[in-house]
Amino acid sequence: MPGTACIDDIPSGMAIGKIALQGRVIAAPMAGVSDQPYRSLARRFGAALAVSEMVSASPQLRHSRKSRQRTTHDGEMGPV
């Protein structure tokens, strides 16, 4: 069908700089959603890359309980 997108039309791999990704899906950063359990599930179900949500750059806020939860990468390959 003309004009219809198909998963086969999407490249199966891509690169971000020197980092090669194998897969067609990247899980976007979403505030309040893309925490460690979400990223783990996204990777388990095929996401080539799962991005953590934004963390505050302010030193006063960076060490809060919520910021620590957002930066947890236990069991993941870690920040790139």
UniProtKB/TrEMBL annotation:
Residues 71-80 have a biased composition (Basic and acidic residues). It holds the Pfam family Dus. InterPro entries: Aldolase_TIM (IPR013785), DUS-like_FMN-bd (IPR035587). Residues 27-77 form the DUS-like FMN-binding domain. Residues 56-80 are annotated as: Disordered. This is DUS-like FMN-binding domain-containing protein.
